[in-house]
Amino acid sequence: MIEELESISRPSEKKGRKVFPALCSVFGTLILLGVIAAFLPLTVPRLMGYEIYEVVSGSMEPEIPVGSVIYVKAAEPDMVETGDIIAFQKDGSVITHRVEENRYVEGEFVTKGDANREEDMEPVPYESLIGKVERHIPVLGIIMTLLASNTGKLYAVLLAVCGVMFHMLAGILRDRERD
User: Fold this and answer.
1) Taking a C-beta distance cutoff of 8 angstroms, is the pair 91, 145 a contact?
2) How far apart are CA 131 and CA 46, in angstroms?
3) Closest CA to 59 of 97, 101, 110
């Protein structure tokens, strides 16, 4: 009777020894992929020529909510049309508004935030244009701000280290199993 119990318990014990290292490896991989995935929307677009900004005011809501990330591609002023959303410099800030009119002769744009009742008081000179907003992703700006902070970078490094440690643990457990 005791021999039967031992023979029944040993296969599951061996199975458990194989499953735990595999789980550690999978968990480590998921952590590392998560860290990489968090930074992809903030790095790859820059390699493709986009500037990335976080929306901090509600002047473009509901089209572009506060906390969104906008991807801005450089554009020639004469290629900007009425209805395009542009990003421009004003008093040291980056502003994102919709073009109401492109005044080619004067070399300026008349802009307006979607949530604003009236057009902006001052036209935007061509020299202030950063580019056209090509895409926006809601909520990603909040994550971007966190990841760009020292605390966020520290968390990302610590998570990556944890992922590597899970892989190391899986390797150690597999080596013990072979012995």
Assistant:
1) no
2) 14
3) 97
Task: Summarize the confidence of residues 139-143 as an average pLDDT.
Answer: 85
The amino acid present at 158, given as its one-letter code, is L
Q: Helix, strand or coil for residue 11?
A: helix
Q: What is the pTM of this model?
A: 0.73
Cβ neighbors of 109 (< 8 A, separation 6 or more) are: 77, 80, 86, 88, 99, 100, 101, 102, 103, 123, 124, 126, 129
How far apart CA 80 and CA 86 sit, in angstroms, is 8
* pLDDT score recorded for residue 5: 43
CA–CA gap between residue 110 and residue 121 (Å, rounded): 9
| Rounded distance between C-alpha atoms, residue 171 and residue 165, angstroms | 10
Mean pLDDT of 7-21: 61
> What whole-number distance in Å separates Cα of residue 164 and Cα of residue 162?
5
Helix (H) or strand (E) holding 54: strand 50-54
